[in-house]
Amino acid sequence: MPLAAERVPWRWLVAGRASRRLVLVVVFVALLLDNMLLTVVVPIVPTFLYTTEYEGANSSVAPAQTEPAPPALRAPPFSSMFSYFDNTTVTVSGSTSATELVNRTESSRLPQPPASSPPLPSGCPEGEEFLAKENVRVGLLFASKALVQLVVNPSVGLLTNRIGYHIPMFIGFVIMFLSTVMFAFSGTYTLLFIARALQGIGSSFSSVAGLGMLASVYTDDFERGNAMGIALGGLALGVLIGAPFGSVMYEFVGKSSPFLVLAFLALLDGALQLCILQPSKISPESTKGTPVSTLLRDPYILVAAGALCFSNMGVAMLEPTLPIWMMQTMCSPKWQLGMAFLPASVSYLVGTNLFGILANKMGRWLCSLIGMAVVGISLLCVPLAKNIYGLIGPNGGLGFAIGMVDSSMMPIMGYLVDLRHTSVYGNVYAIADVAFCMGFAIGPSTGGAIVRAIGFPWLMIIIGVINIAYAPLCWFLRNPPTKEEKIGILSQECPMQTKSYTPQKTLRHFPLTDESDVEAENAE
C-alpha cells in the first residue's frame, strides 16, 4: 500500500509531462509574468523619477531661498497714510518712499495685464521643461528592453535548434527573476535601466522558446492557431494586470511591492517548469532548421513581421508618452496613469481569445488587415480625449485591434515555415519576436523625441497613418505559394505532392518520459 501511494505522484508527473495542455499552461504563465513586468513599470517610472529627481532637487534649493527672510523682522513698524488723490488709506512701512507710494496708488486703479500663463490647477505637476526631457529619458529606458531582446533573439533561435526548448525556457525564468528583484530595489535611473535591459534577455529566452515549443507540439494548423490564441491570452492578461496593478500598489503600498509580488509568482513558475519540462534534458531538433538569413529573404514572412511590428509600435509609443501627457493636460493622479491602459488590456484579452478561433474561419489575412486599419483609427482618436474617460474608446479599440493582428500573425508565421521551408520553428519565432521588439524599441525611443519636438497629437497622427497605409499589404498573405523546389515537383505531374506544408519528419518532444526513448528505438 505505501508503494502504491508513492507511485501516485510519479504517475501524475509522468502523465503531466506527456500532456500538451500542461505545456500550454507553462508557456501561458511565462508570457503572463513577462508582460506583467513589461507593463507594471509604465505608471511607476515617470512619477518615480519626477518625485526623486525634480522634487528632490527643488526641496534642497528651497531652504536656501528662504534664508534672507529674517532681516525683514528688523523693518520699522507699519503706518497708514491717507491719499487725497483717490480718497484711500494705504498701509506702508517706514522704508517706503513717496515715489513708491504714488506708483502703488496708480497701479491700484489700472487694470492688471493677464498673466503670461494661467496657474496650474491643483494636482498638476510643475516643471514643464523637466517633463519634456523626461519623455526622452523614459522612452529610452522602456526601449532598452526591446533593443536588448532584438540583439539576443537570433542567438536564442539557433540555441533552441541545437539543445531544444526546455533549457532556454528555464534560463529565461532565472533571468526574469533576477530582473524583477533588481527593479524592486533600484533607486536611480541607471539601475532601472540595467534592470530593464536584463529583462530583455530573459524575455527573449522565454518567448522564443515558448512559442517554438507550442508550434512543435501542436502540428495541426487549426490546433496551433487555437493554442497560440490561448498563449497570447497570457500575454494579454499580463498587459491587462500589469499597469493598473503597478499604479495602485505604488500609490498605496510602495514602489517595491508590485515587483516583490511578481518575484514570488516567478518562483512558482520556475517550480512548474522543473516539474513539467525537465530543463536538464537536451532534446535537439531531428532536422536542420532553415537559416535565419533565408527566412528574412522570404517576402511573405517579412510582410507578417511588419504587421506585428507596426501594430505594436502604436501601443509602444503610448507607454512612455501617455502618462506624461495625462500629467500635463489632465492633472491625473498616480493611480489613473495605469488605469488608462485598462481598456486596451481588457479588449486585447478578448481579441486574442476570440480571433484565435475566428481568424481561421474568416481568413487570417483579412483579420490582420482589418486589425491594422482599426489600430490606425484608434490612435488618431487618442489626442481628442479631455479626461481619462475619453481614453476608454480609443484605447479599447486599440487593444482589440492589436489582439486581432497578433492572434492571426503568430499562427501564420508557423504556417509559412511549414508551407515554404523546413518545419523547425525556433528561427521563425525568433523573427516574430524581433519584429515585436522592433516595435517596442523604435516606438518609445523615437516617441519621446517626437513629442518633445512637435507634440503628442502629431505623434499619434504619424503612427496612425503608418498603420492604415500598411494594412493593404496583408492581402498578399491571402494565398501564399509554396517554395520553388516544391513548385518544381508539382510541375512534373506529381499530384500526390499537393500538401507540401506538413512537417518533413515528426518532431518528438513529448511525452518526455524515459520510456519514450525505448519506444522510439523499438519502432525503428
Textual characterization of the structure:
With 524 residues, this protein is mainly α. The chain has helices spanning 2-17, 20-40, 44-66, 98-109, 128-163, 166-185, 189-217, 221-252, 256-276, 292-296, 299-329, 334-339, 342-362, 364-381, 392-420, 426-454, 456-470, 484-491, 515-523, and strands spanning 78-83, 88-93. A two-stranded antiparallel ribbon has the order 1-2. Helix 8 (221-252) runs antiparallel to helix 13 (342-362), helix 14 (364-381) runs antiparallel to helix 15 and helix 16 (426-454) runs antiparallel to helix 17. Mean pLDDT is 75; it is low at 61-87, 90-122 and 485-511.
Topology:
Blueprint: H1 2-17, H2 20-40, H3 44-66, E1 78-83, E2 88-93, H4 98-109, H5 128-163, H6 166-185, H7 189-217, H8 221-252, H9 256-276, H10 292-296, H11 299-329, H12 334-339, H13 342-362, H14 364-381, H15 392-420, H16 426-454, H17 456-470, H18 484-491, H19 515-523
Antiparallel strand pairs: 1-2
Helix pairs in contact: 2-7, 2-8, 2-9, 3-5, 5-7, 5-11, 5-16, 6-7, 6-9, 7-8, 7-16, 8-9, 8-13, 8-15, 11-14, 11-15, 11-16, 11-17, 13-14, 13-15, 14-15, 14-17, 16-17
